[in-house]
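Table S2 (continued). Query chain:
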Amino acid sequence: MIGVDDGVPAPLGAHFDGRGVNFALFSQNATAVDLCLFDQGERHETRRIRLPCRTDDVSHGYLRGVFPGQLYGYRVHGHWDPAQGHRFNPAKLLLDPYARDIQGRIRWHDSL
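Corresponding output:
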């Protein structure tokens, strides 16, 4: 069973400590970050968890019962203001910019 705790803001990325994984993502202008979990072979998320804490510009949370190999992505909420460089769209699943491995293929498309 997965339990959710506050976690810590550093190091950035996903880090396993033997019991669970701390997730930390930097975004200066995000208003919220959802962590989306996927089961092997699934195309749709099986669980969505709002990262419970924000320290400065880092959203973070710790998930007990999550282990290496867990497939995940982020949905980041914020303002849509392209003139200011803000293109937040929680309908888009984002890769972890700190990930050390990516599974599957990316199908490039103009909507990306």
